[in-house]
């Protein structure tokens, strides 16, 4: 391994400046613990001089038992009109009682004269005074040379004076900041080379992503001798975001051989990315390099055939190194290799000479032509395959269902009511449920009925995501609609699909597949064996088929043939 690289995370401060991101103090504490567990060296907790929430965080952070990371408080140089001893911002930094303090100062003459409205010499004095004072008060001081690259490109002599002021104050690290995010890698390289000819203080890099160069610029800086890298988890940050540590870390360790985290910690990369996204209430980016759900997903038949022989043909690293996994998608672009790969994944005994392979492939192509999509609905695809092999089981039969939406006035929320009739082994279950919208009502009605047959197996199933896509816009309200549903329990998530000109029917198809998949996975010994050909799937939904009586009124069942769950109270 090459020299150590220090990782400085600023998600809790710079990341919260993103338009859609907000963390409570409790959120910040939990993320700090996760960053520490992962092996991050520095965690910038916020700016105690700017808001009460950050001051609360530093107070609470004293109770954290961190094993790897140091907490850093962030702030600015002293105010032009105040002495460093009496400056409110400097005082707040010291009151945070952190082992590390990071302050920024203006390295671009334009900012000194136009933003701070001070003369250039006064700006240098503010930098030196603040750093020199703090260095004598805390264990470690880091200087962020804000707008350094823009300043250097326009007035290099003055930009270098700001670095010399920080060096002379005795700081532990000088961080060169591409604050506007518009510098290109070759400029980063040349400017850092010039800086290193004069400054022997350890250097850091802090890049924004306005030109989508933040990761590349950070990597380039390290190759030029920088030993301290700042960024955020998932690249969250103001405007277009900050340098993404989730991409920087594996690039440094796996591609360039720099020692920044252990192998064990690296395997937690995807988990860390997902945790921060979840805490920030952001949908994880499926196509994010290294950790995204699609990062190691293969769709084209030629690609899958090659990957089955050797993963290196289309994968630049082993996904397990960063906590991810290989996935093969099934679509109209699929070949036999896709089907065989998925059969192996699902534990279905299938070889290339089995005629079922070609049947499944042709069915998938036909269904995708009709509007189905299996890339996000692998549970529906597995049910389709098991039907083709005669391994599908019937866990329940949908006799009929109906959804009613009743509106009263423009100021009252409409009432959605769903009724469902299910049967199993000659016993019928009739349920009624109200919900927030027709799909929610239908979901609740299915659950209520199915839980009478399977009280334990379906208890923790929840609907995580619901997506609707209009497939034929030219048809207006008569267009086909595709519904993709993501469901989950305490351990797994799975996707199902439905297609129809009726949004309720499409939703019902996806919901039925979701419940059937859960039962198949967790209760394979239950239900009745089903002997059905793939061709049957063509006549209905890819998993369950079209439920009977999709919109017909529900006639009451004969006495003794059903248990009536009744209607819930409002």
Describe the structure.
This protein is 37% helix and 21% strand. It is of the alpha/beta class and 570 residues long. Strand 3, helix 2 (52-61) and strand 4 (70-76) form a beta-alpha-beta unit. It contains 19 helices and 21 strands. The longest helix has 20 residues, at 503-522. Helix 1 packs antiparallel against helix 12 and helix 13 packs across helix 14. It folds into two domains: 2-261, Aldolase class I (TIM Barrel, Alpha-Beta Barrel), CATH 3.20.20; 393-566, Alpha-isopropylmalate synthase LeuA, regulatory domain (Double Stranded RNA Binding Domain, 2-Layer Sandwich), CATH 3.30.160. It has an eight-stranded parallel barrel, surrounded by seven helices. A four-stranded mixed beta sheet has the order 14-15-16-21. A three-stranded antiparallel beta sheet has the order 17-18-19.
């Amino acid at each position: 391994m090459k020299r150590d690289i220090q990782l400085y995370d600023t998600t809790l401060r710079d990341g919260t400046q993103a338009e859609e991101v907000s963390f409570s103090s409790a959120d910040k504490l939990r993320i700090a613990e996760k960053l520490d567990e992962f092996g991050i060296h520095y965690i910038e907790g916020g700016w105690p001089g700017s808001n009460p929430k950050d001051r609360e965080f530093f107070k609470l952070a004293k109770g954290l038992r961190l094993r790897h990371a140091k907490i850093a408080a962030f702030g600015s140089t002293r105010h032009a009109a105040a002495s460093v001893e009496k400056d409110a911002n400097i005082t707040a930094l010291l009151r945070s009682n952190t082992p590390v303090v990071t302050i920024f100062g203006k390295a671009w003459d334009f900012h000194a004269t136009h933003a701070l409205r001070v003369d250039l010499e006064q700006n240098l004095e503010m930098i030196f005074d603040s750093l020199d004072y703090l260095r004598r008060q805390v264990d470690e001081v880091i200087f962020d040379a804000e707008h350094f690259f823009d300043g250097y490109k326009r007035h290099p002599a003055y930009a270098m004076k700001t670095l010399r002021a920080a060096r002379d104050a005795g700081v532990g690290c000088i961080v060169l900041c591409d604050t506007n995010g518009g510098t290109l890698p070759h400029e980063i390289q040349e400017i850092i080379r010039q800086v290193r000819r004069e400054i022997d203080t350890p250097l850091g890099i802090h890049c924004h992503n306005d030109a989508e160069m933040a990761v590349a610029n950070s990597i380039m800086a390290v190759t030029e001798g920088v030993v301290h890298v700042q960024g955020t988890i998932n690249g969250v940050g103001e405007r277009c975001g900050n340098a993404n540590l989730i991409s920087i870390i594996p690039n440094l360790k796996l591609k360039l051989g720099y020692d920044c985290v252990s192998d064990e910690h690296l395997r937690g990369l995807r988990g860390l990315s997902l945790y921060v996204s979840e805490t920030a209430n952001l949908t994880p980016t499926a196509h994010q390099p290294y950790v995204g759900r699609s990062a190691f997903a293969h769709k084209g038949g030629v690609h899958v055939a090659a990957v089955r022989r050797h993963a290196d043909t289309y994968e630049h690293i082993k996904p397990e190194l960063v906590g991810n996994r290989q996935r093969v998608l099934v679509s109209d672009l699929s070949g036999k290799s896709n089907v065989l790969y998925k059969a192996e994944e699902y534990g279905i005994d299938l070889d290339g000479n089995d005629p079922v392979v070609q049947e499944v492939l042709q069915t998938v192509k036909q269904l995708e032509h009709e509007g189905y999509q299996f890339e996000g609905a692998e549970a529906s695809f597995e049910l389709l395959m098991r039907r083709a092999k005669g391994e599908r089981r019937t866990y329940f039969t949908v006799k009929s269902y109906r959804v009613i939406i009743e509106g009263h006035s423009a100021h009252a929320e409409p009432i959605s009511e769903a009724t469902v009739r299910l049967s199993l082994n000659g016993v019928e279950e009739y349920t009624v449920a109200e919900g927030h919208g027709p799909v929610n009502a239908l979901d609740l009605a299915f659950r209520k009925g199915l839980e009478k047959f399977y009280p334990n197996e379906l208890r923790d199933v929840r609907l995580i995501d619901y997506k609707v896509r209009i497939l034929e816009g030219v048809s207006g309200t008569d267009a086909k609609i595709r519904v993709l549903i993501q469901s989950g329990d305490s351990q797994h998530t799975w996707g199902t699909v439905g297609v129809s000109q009726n949004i309720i029917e499409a939703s019902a198809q996806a919901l039925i597949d979701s419940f059937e998949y859960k039962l198949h996975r967790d209760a394979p010994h239950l239900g009745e064996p089903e002997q059905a050909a793939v061709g049957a799937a063509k006549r209905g939904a890819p998993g369950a088929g079209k439920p009977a009586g999709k919109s017909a009124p529900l006639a009451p069942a004969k006495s003794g043939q059903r248990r009536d769950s009744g209607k819930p109270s409002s």
